[in-house]
UniProtKB/TrEMBL annotation:
This is NOP14 nucleolar protein. Residues 139-182, 192-260 have a biased composition (Basic and acidic residues). It is found in: Nucleus, Nucleolus. Involved in nucleolar processing of pre-18S ribosomal RNA. Has a role in the nuclear export of 40S pre-ribosomal subunit to the cytoplasm. The gene is NOP14. GO terms for cellular component: Noc4p-Nop14p complex; small-subunit processome. Residues 295-328, 336-349 have a biased composition (Acidic residues). It comes from Sphenodon punctatus. GO terms for biological process: maturation of SSU-rRNA. The lineage of its organism: Eukaryota, Metazoa, Chordata, Craniata, Vertebrata.
Length: 805
């Protein structure tokens, strides 16, 4: 039919258009070079090839019209230089006169001089006529001698004229100077400084001038150095600690810094022009005293021997010398007593100096030993990261709290992760070792609480540096504690409250990790573990009461920000109040495990002695009660019980403030209110334990008393119906808007349809390419197998021939 024919023609046209446009873009998608034919009429199908060629030729002639090639010198073009034609310049028509070196026009040659010296022919010896004259008769040629004489006279005349011009200019200048002096007196004259009087007063600067001068002398902003990175700070700190450690070791070995800084002895003949070495190995020119005395004795002996040898050849001289010596001895015999006294005085002075020297040396030795001992007692400035808990314990044990903090700080600085590759793993292990060390300090009797409090800071820094390793270490601690609790319940049927170290871990977890998250990988297991402690650990002793109240305090700290409701906390506080009541009748409330209405420990906190109540003073419970409760008097035990009750009251107040906005607050606190009002003898307790009973009443729902808001009234709009049976708007603008919306939807659907068809076309092209590649690969594989089979057959045939032979 005609419709099918039109549809097939449209499909073919669409395919042809996509083949020419979309397929071409698809094939050239990875190509960066594109050749575009910009010739006139190349893509215009309405113009015939002949017309294209004619118009291209005409355009080429138009472009070349009026343009001349600057490199083609054969064309008839007039070349110029500074506005003058080169052809005229080559004719050399201008007359150039020669002159001496002192003339103003240097380097200029006249035409006659050029013709005389560079003519090269007889024709140039003729005198050229001026440009304006045309003589019909030819002049007689002059000889060379006449031309030279004429040239000399002309040059002398020109020189004389220039000299006259210079003299005239000098006279005019002198005349002008003399006249200027007469005119200068008529102009405004400024008196010189020497003639000025000192009566003139300089004006004082005003406030603005002072401010401007002060601003000129203000300090300008100096450019500051860039901020250093964390790695640079760590490197500088490590270098500083290494330098301090080297200084400490030097002092510990008794090497004085002043001795190192003393200038080395150098000879007077040394010109200091030797090689530059890393270390000066030259020996000092010093000789010990003993060596000097020995040399002097040897010199004396050698001198005596020489004298004896010299006396042998001349005996007369020797006799004269001995006679003179005898006369000298006789003449000085009366001074022997004086010389002896002088020698004794000098010996005494030498002994005193020697004694002072020895005393000074002993004092220096004492000071040196004191410095060595002080250096040995100092903490090392560099520490290697401990690889085991025993090494960390050996570093920290036996030191004060401040020294332990310094050791941990230097370990972190010397083993910063940015300094070496393996430092990160070492510091991650350090967190676990430090956590274990804190647990051990908590189990010591008495527990070192202050040291634990100070060690939390380096633990927090390590946690901030390595949060993953810290969370894994703390989670492992809680997993082990929960596993131990389950094993104890399976074996004994009940669990006991943990030791102080586990409670310290719970407190540290609140400091290290955020407790306000809905779910946290460390805090959530800690909350579950605390809830198990409050529900599965029975109260057997007073220590268990203190531990349970400590866990309740931690529970409130955990949920203070998130305001999460903890029913285990409320039930435990209700049980604490229950074991403080005397006679148990009809309870009016329900107890939850681990508390029982009646039993051995149902009156654990009961206090009936009035004297103990009167002497009790409110104070915090010490932590050493959790580890070991010393045998004390009954009064002290009652005071501890009253302190536990006071702590329970404080926790109840905090719970009321925390959960006061809950809609079920009345039902939550109803059992505790019943115990306080009906069973617990609060009236007999001291004034510090008196509670104000404020009941919270429900208020009935009441509608808000507001004036009713009337409904808005709108004036009716009359719409003129233009066409019936079609969707019409309020006016022409609305109709135009609806028409554009409808057109946009139609165009959008058409565009989506075309995009879908383009995708299908590209998919077909890709499929055909894939099939062609597969067919080609199969053909090549088949050809390869055929060649291999042929080779195999030939090889087997050759093998059979060999066997036959």
């Amino acid at each position: 039919t005609i419709e099918q024919l039109c549809y097939s023609i449209a499909l073919k046209q669409q395919k042809r258009v996509r083949t020419q446009t979309l397929l071409k873009e698809y094939k050239e998608r990875d190509k960066s070079n594109v050749f575009k034919d910009k010739r006139f009429g190349e893509y215009d199908t309405k113009i015939s090839p002949e017309e294209k060629m004619m118009k291209r030729f005409a355009m080429e002639r138009q472009q070349n019209y009026g343009k001349k090639s600057i490199y083609n010198l054969n064309e008839d073009e007039e070349l110029t230089h500074y506005g003058q034609s080169l052809a005229d310049i080559e004719k050399l028509n201008d007359i150039v006169d020669s002159d001496s070196d002192d003339t103003e026009e240097k380097g200029i040659l006249s035409a006659e001089l050029t013709a005389a010296h560079f003519g090269g022919g007889g024709g140039l010896l003729r005198r050229k006529a001026p440009m304006g004259q045309q003589d019909e008769e030819e002049e007689k040629p002059k000889s060379r001698k006449e031309l030279i004489e004429e040239l000399i006279t002309k040059s002398k005349q020109e020189k004389r004229e220039r000299q006259m011009q210079r003299e005239n200019a000098m006279e005019l200048t002198e005349k002008l100077d003399s006249e200027w002096k007469d005119i200068q007196a008529l102009l405004a004259h400024k008196t010189p400084k020497s003639e000025r009087t000192g009566k003139e007063e300089t004006p004082k600067p005003d406030e603005y001038d002072k401010m401007v001068r002060e601003l000129g002398f203000e300090m300008k902003a100096q450019p500051s150095d860039r901020m250093k990175t964390e790695e640079e700070f760590a490197k500088e700190e490590q270098e500083r600690l290494q330098k301090l450690e080297a200084d400490r070791l030097r002092r510990m070995h008794g090497i004085d810094e002043q001795e190192k800084k003393k200038p080395k002895h150098m000879s007077a003949d040394d010109l200091a022009d030797g090689f530059i070495l890393d270390k000066d190995d030259r020996c000092l020119l010093t000789i010990p005293m003993k060596r000097v005395e020995e040399n002097q004795e040897e010199d004396g002996e050698n001198g005596g021997n020489e004298r004896e040898e010299e006396s042998e050849p001349g005996s007369e001289d020797a006799e004269e010398a001995t006679a003179e010596e005898i006369d000298a001895i006789d003449s000085h015999s009366d001074l022997e007593s004086d010389t002896g006294s002088d020698e004794e005085a000098s010996e005494n002075e030498e002994e005193k100096k020697k004694h002072k020297r020895n005393k000074k040396k002993l004092q220096e030795e004492v000071e040196q030993n004191a410095k060595i001992e002080a250096a040995r007692s100092e903490l090392p400035y560099t520490f290697a990261a401990p690889e085991s808990y025993e090494k960390l314990k050996s570093l920290l044990s036996g030191r004060t709290m401040e020294q332990q903090l310094v050791v941990l700080e230097r370990i972190q600085k010397c083993n910063h992760p940015s300094l070496e590759v393996g430092n990160k793993a070492k510091l991650e292990k350090l967190f676990g070792f430090l956590l274990e060390y804190i647990g051990e300090l908590a189990t010591v009797e008495p527990p070192e609480v202050k040291t634990i409090d100070k060690l939390v800071l380096p633990l927090y820094h390590l946690c901030q540096m390595f949060p993953d390793a810290a969370s894994n270490s703390v989670k492992l601690v809680f997993q082990d504690a929960a596993h131990d609790m389950e094993e104890m319940i399976e074996v004994k049927g009940r669990a006991a409250f943990p030791v102080l170290d586990m409670l310290i871990y719970l407190k540290i977890t609140k400091i290290l990790f955020p407790a306000s998250d809905y779910w946290h990988p460390v805090v959530t297991p800690a909350l579950v573990y605390m809830s198990q402690l409050l529900t599965k650990c029975p109260i057997a002793t007073l220590q268990d009461v203190v531990k349970g109240l400590f866990v309740c305090c931690l529970f409130l700290d955990y949920v203070s920000l998130s305001q999460r409701f903890a029913p285990e906390l409320i039930n435990f506080l209700l049980g604490i109040l229950h074991i403080a009541t005397p006679k148990k009748g009809v309870l009016g409330y329900t107890l939850v495990h681990p508390f029982r209405p009646l039993g051995k420990n149902s009156e654990q906190l009961l206090v009936q002695d009035k004297e103990d109540m009167e002497t009790w003073q409110k104070q915090n419970l010490p932590l050493h009660i959790m580890t070991r409760l010393t045998e004390s008097s009954k009064m002290e035990m009652n005071h501890i019980k009253l302190s536990c009750i006071a702590l329970c009251f404080d926790l109840i107040k905090r719970c009321a403030a925390l959960y006061g906005l809950l809609p079920s607050f009345h039902e939550i606190m109803q059992p505790i209110r019943g115990v306080l009002t009906e069973h617990l003898p609060v009236s007999r307790y001291p004034k510090h334990l008196q509670l104000e009973n404020k009941e919270k009443h429900y208020y009935p729902l009441v509608c808000e008393k507001k004036k009713p808001v009337p409904l808005k009234l709108y004036t009716p709009k009359i719409v003129k119906v233009l066409e019936f049976g079609r969707k019409q708007g309020a006016n022409k603008e609305e109709q135009e808007r609806q028409r554009l919306i409808h057109k946009h939807k139609r165009e959008f659907k058409g565009a989506v349809r075309e995009i879908r068809k383009d995708n299908q076309f590209l998919a077909r092209m890709q499929l055909s390419e894939t099939m062609d590649r597969d067919a080609d690969r199969k053909r090549r594989v088949k050809q390869l197998f055929n060649s291999l089979a042929t080779q195999e057959g030939e090889w087997k045939a050759m093998k059979r021939k060999k066997f036959k032979r």
